Automatic annotation (TrEMBL):
Family: Belongs to the PP2C family.
Protein name: protein-serine/threonine phosphatase
Keywords (A to Z) from UniProt: Hydrolase, Magnesium, Manganese, Metal-binding, Protein phosphatase
Residues annotated as domain PPM-type phosphatase: 137-512
UniProt key word Hydrolase: yes
Enzyme Commission number, as recorded: 3.1.3.16
InterPro entries the record matches: PP2C (IPR015655), PPM-type-like_dom_sf (IPR036457), PPM-type_phosphatase-like_dom (IPR001932)
Catalytic activity entry: O-phospho-L-seryl-[protein] + H2O = L-seryl-[protein] + phosphate; O-phospho-L-threonyl-[protein] + H2O = L-threonyl-[protein] + phosphate
Lineage: Eukaryota, Viridiplantae, Streptophyta, Embryophyta, Tracheophyta
Co-factor(s): Mg(2+); Mn(2+)
Superkingdom assignment: Eukaryota
GO molecular function (one): protein serine/threonine phosphatase activity
Length: 525
């Protein structure tokens, strides 16, 4: 791979890196040092490329000392690659989650996180003896990783070129970046771990339900319409990144009973995502309790969470807060000839007090507290109703760590902020074009329809361009117009002061289908 080159066209944001997929290069395309060539994606991939960009508005410390400095000093440097996607081979550094998430182990290591209990998943794992996380798909073979920080936002992308899956996450931090940093350093591997647990639980259920397994040891299968997908093969693509030549076999293929429905398996994937998030929340709040004497500000630090997992034709989303994933689709129309109008479909829920359903849920959860929502904020503090962290709105002893006006008065019935995520799985069709994934800063200036139209028009006129970077440029233009500045004047305002005019903004555009295009990502800090 060639190193990324910083380009500075007049009036544009800095670009940190660019990719071009190798499998469908146009014959007229000329090699350029501006782009990095990727190996061909497998045909079973439902995405052709992605484009990511991030713009900071908040002034935030680059790294914190949470978790005895392990997050900032050792974990994040293994993940962060703001200037290029890079290959990650088997690496002991990335298995440091075994130290951080000690509630999934029998020992506490050198870092205290949430302790194990007999009812926890870690207790269950003692009897199953699965491969350690360092033996999971992340380290078994190479994957591509990219990401970085912009203000209090963090963005992450991990993809397997060989098996065609993609993991993207946006962590929109607030009151500091510690929670977003913690998520960036731990959540991905925690999700991988719970996928392993799902695999083990599924196999145990199958063994119990079929004491008469075939002599050849055939494993349970998942049935989906005309295809039957071997469950262990499916999971091993996620866990071990192995090449599978039998992703899809006919219904007539030899397969042991019982069979597991695809809907049940998808539910298991969503449940695993939720359990991983809950585990990370417990670990983070326990860490906060251990360190709040020296850093009481940690009790107010939080983050919105948006995770997108694309595997095969299934697009899974998990979200807390007000970040969004918006699908651009033609419905039943024809993408190629444009016979139908492109529609913007929001795949995620917005968890804010502005949403009537969320507002009523919060009020109903606290019927005896007349001050549940004050001045359009939960307890007068937070606009989002679901979030990671923000322990002072979830536990009284964490609120008590704050002094004076920072403390929430009359914390009658915590928790006031939920960690119950919205979960969704969308089956990708030929009419689906792309997905815009963004933090709320993007949607402060653009509606879903506007974002989709801008990306679509840009893709049509710039088939090898960077739609995420373009979307950020349009946001800066709009923010500058609203403030009465030129784009250059706005961008010359230092981070911190510029927060008055726009939020930290992170955008990922995932191009669906098999039309290979340039794959880019950029971080402008």
């Amino acid at each position: 791979m060639r190193g990324g080159i910083m380009i500075k066209p007049e009036g544009e944001l800095k670009v940190s890196f660019g990719y071009q997929c190798n499998s469908n290069r146009d014959s007229s395309w000329e090699d350029s040092d501006e782009y990095e060539t990727l190996p061909e994606l497998r045909r079973n991939s439902s995405f052709s490329c992605l484009s990511g960009a991030a713009l900071s508005a908040n002034a935030t410390l680059a790294n914190t000392n949470i978790c005895n400095g392990l997050i900032g000093a050792e974990i994040l440097p293994s993940w962060d690659s703001p200037n290029s996607f890079r290959r990650v081979p088997s690496s002991p550094t990335l298995s440091r989650l075994d130290i951080l998430s000690s509630s999934l182990q029998s020992s506490m290591s050198n870092l205290s996180c949430s302790p194990s209990t007999p009812d926890s998943d870690s207790y269950l794992l003692k009897s199953m003896s699965p491969p350690s996380r360092s033996e999971g798909f992340l380290n078994a073979m190479e994957v591509q990783v990219a990401g970085g920080a912009a203000g209090e936002d963090r963005v992450q992308a991990v993809c397997s070129e060989e098996n065609g899956w993609l993991f993207c996450a946006i962590y929109d931090g607030f009151n500091g970046r510690d929670a977003a940093d913690f998520l960036a350093g731990t959540l991905y591997e925690t999700i991988v771990f719970y996928f392993k647990l799902l695999d083990w639980e599924s196999s145990q259920e199958s063994i119990k339900a079929s004491s008469g397994l075939d002599l050849d040891g055939s494993l349970p299968c998942i049935e989906d319409d005309s295809n039957t997908i071997n469950e262990e093969r499916f999971l091993s693509q996620i866990y071990t990144d192995r090449d599978s030549s039998v992703d899809n076999v006919s219904k007539n293929a030899s397969c042991a009973k019982p069979k597991i429905s695809t809907d049940s398996f998808r539910h298991g994937v969503l449940d695993s995502l939720q359990r991983a998030l809950s585990q990370s929340e417990n670990d983070f709040l326990y860490m906060v309790e251990q360190e709040m004497e020296d850093r009481p500000d940690l009790v107010s630090v939080g983050s919105c969470v948006l995770v997108v997992l694309l595997h095969g034709k299934d697009l899974y989303t998990l979200n807390l807060g007000d970040s969004r994933a918006v699908l651009a689709t033609y419905g039943n129309g024809d993408f190629m000839n444009g016979s139908e109008r492109l529609e913007a479909i929001q795949l995620t829920d917005s968890h804010t007090v502005d949403d009537e359903g969320e507002r009523m849920r919060v009020l109903c959860d606290h019927p005896d507290d007349p001050m549940t929502i004050v001045a359009g904020r939960v307890k007068g503090k937070l606009k989002v109703t679901r979030a990671f962290g923000v322990g002072y709105l979830k536990k009284k002893k964490l609120n008590d760590a704050l002094m004076g006006i920072l403390q929430v008065r009359n914390l009658m019935s915590p928790p006031y902020v939920s960690t119950q995520p919205s979960l969704n799985v969308h089956r990708i069709s030929k009419s689906d074009c792309f997905v815009v994934v963004g933090s709320d800063g993007l949607f402060d200036f653009f509606t879903n329809d506007e974002a989709v139209k801008l990306v679509h028009s840009y893709i049509l006129s710039n088939p090898s361009g960077d739609p995420a970077k373009f979307l950020l440029e349009q946001l800066v233009v709009r923010a500058a117009n609203c403030a009465g500045f030129s784009m250059e004047e706005l961008m010359n305002i230092p981070a911190g002061r510029r927060r008055k005019y726009h939020d930290d903004v992170t955008v990922i555009v995932i191009i669906l289908g098999t039309n290979q295009r340039t794959t880019k990502a950029s971080t402008c800090v």
